[in-house]
Amino acid sequence: MAASARPRTRIQNEKREVILEAALEVFSSNGFRGATIDQIAEAAGMSKPNLLYYFRRKEDIHVTLMERLLDTWLAPLRELDDVGDPLAEICGYIRRKLEMARDYPRESRLFANEIIQGAPRIMPMLEGELKQLVDEKAEVIRGWIRAGQIVRIDPYHLIFSIWATTQHYADFDVQVRAVLGPDRGGEGRFEDAARFLEQLFMDGLRPKPEA
To answer: Model-level pTM?
Structure first.
């Protein structure tokens, strides 16, 4: 049976964090279907009955991780500000997304695995919180377009393109490093990517001077 609804003790919170950290490693390596409670318990260094005291099912652990992940994943987009300069705001968003690709590769793989499977466990989050935030930021981008500050583009596909290009450096990091080779495949690859993507998007979004 799961822990009661009473406030958790410090030890209980610490145990949950150990389980979630272990589960992140197992899920990101094996996917949801390939992961087992036994694997997570072993990675957490505890018995299976002890783990089941904190989480009744594998699904409960996964959903908890996905809820946390989505909140972390949306943080850079929340910072997109309609008060700032549009090109600077978009450059900042690109850099924040690349920093996440660098710092949270396991979380990115976990999210990608879930989406590839059809998002069976997080569809309400995608249709709710994620869609609401993207709709809000799409309206910010439309405002920049109406003001003539960026070229006329589809705001949703702009956001999708930033997601695709930045998360590539997390989900396909092994491929990126292999192709770049030892001279360019180190930590500097993220700064190289940032400069390239900034140029790519800025050149495409900057209004052209009238002839």
So the answer is: 0.84
